[in-house]
């Protein structure tokens, strides 16, 4: 009996010691989940602010998202003498657009390059930049409008309604129609099962063109074209090339209906940690990033349009006047609902 008590006592001591050992190295056991979650900024012992910036597209040298993010990080580092440094996370490493946007809102992620259709779930104001055919496939016109007072007002409203810091627009090539039958005019759009993003303004636009808008995940487009589930989709040529959509399409119809606005955002928390001089440097870097994305979009559009031709696709240029007239009611609808949209459309018209 006495021997049994001794053994029990030794067992309790061992359990206690083991518990203390585990608690002492608990961080080693817990890092798995925490490391995969977006975290806010941190400062090193020498005062360097380390921040994180994410985007969903895989890193590609001539993709506007990549160029914008890398330009931004480089210029921020230069302008702050290395005191602010952004670590970059492409390819959805920090989650999808919605995940990152919500993390930015909560201050758990410092910055991101985020697509406007996702932001539309929080504020409708950015639909101004997605109004159909207002830019006439003109990159310089789009840049003047979005970097000007009316475009900046859209970003200000975004800040007010979504509690983020909107630094600048990011540009990418205009979007066109990819189909397996030729589109020679507006009549050919009637009843076309067209994949689109699940965004009200986009659905309104493609309904106005007479198509049957079919929202589906982007990753399902290739198979849907193969099986005939859809008759076509709309995309820029960079995305079409990356996804090898030339293997399941025969025609590209030059439409340029919109650009699918993208925004470079920061969390209010991260922005508030910067001094006035640092904020100025970050804002200037964002403007340089925007211009860099515009320049690469022009070059990439020309490059990958040629790739489409080389892969055997027929490029159709058509009279867009009927398309513009058919979608005018969509512009009227959103301009009546949102004053900033009305102002932005008028500003674009004045710049033409």
Automatic annotation (TrEMBL):
The keyword Signal applies. One of its GO terms (molecular function) is carbohydrate binding. GO terms for cellular component: outer membrane-bounded periplasmic space. It holds the Pfam family DctP. GO terms for biological process: transmembrane transport. The keyword Ion transport does not apply. Keywords: Signal. It comes from the Bacteria. InterPro entries: DctP_fam, TRAP_DctP, TRAP_DctP_sf. This is Sialic acid-binding periplasmic protein SiaP. The gene is siaP_1.
């Amino acid at each position: 009996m006495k021997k049994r008590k001794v053994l029990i006592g030794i067992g309790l001591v061992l359990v206690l010691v083991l518990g203390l050992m585990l608690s002492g190295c608990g961080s080693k056991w817990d890092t798995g989940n925490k490391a995969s979650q977006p975290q806010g900024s941190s400062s090193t012992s020498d005062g360097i602010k380390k921040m994180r910036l994410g985007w969903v597209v895989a890193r590609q040298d001539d993709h506007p998202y990549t160029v914008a993010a890398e330009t931004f990080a480089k210029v921020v580092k230069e302008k702050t003498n290395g005191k602010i440094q952004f670590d970059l996370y492409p390819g959805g490493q920090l989650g999808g657009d919605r995940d990152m946007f919500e993390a930015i809102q909560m201050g758990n992620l410092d910055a991101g390059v985020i697509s406007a259709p996702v932001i539309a779930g929080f504020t409708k104001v950015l639909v101004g930049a997605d109004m159909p055919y207002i830019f006439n496939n003109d990159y310089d016109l789009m840049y003047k409008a979005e970097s000007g007072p009316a475009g900046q007002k859209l970003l200000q409203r975004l800040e007010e309604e979504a509690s983020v810091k909107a630094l600048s627009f990011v540009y990418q090539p205009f979007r066109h129609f990819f189909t397996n039958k030729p589109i020679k005019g507006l009549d050919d759009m009637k009843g076309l099962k067209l994949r689109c993003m699940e965004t009200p303004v986009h659905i309104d636009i493609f309904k106005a063109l007479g198509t049957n808008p079919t929202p589906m995940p982007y990753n399902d487009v290739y198979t849907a074209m193969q099986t005939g589930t859809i008759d076509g989709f709309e995309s820029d040529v960079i995305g079409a090339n990356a996804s090898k959509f030339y293997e399941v399409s025969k025609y590209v119809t030059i439409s340029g209906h919109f650009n699918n606005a993208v925004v470079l955002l920061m969390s209010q928390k991260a922005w508030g940690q910067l001094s006035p001089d640092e904020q100025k440097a970050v804002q200037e870097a964002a403007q340089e990033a925007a211009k860099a994305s515009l320049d690469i979009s022009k070059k990439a559009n020309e490059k990958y349009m040629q790739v489409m031709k080389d892969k055997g696709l027929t490029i159709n240029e058509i009279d867009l006047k009927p398309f513009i007239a058919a979608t005018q009611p969509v512009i009227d609808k959103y301009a009546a609902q949102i004053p900033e949209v009305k102002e932005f459309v008028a500003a674009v018209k004045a710049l033409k």
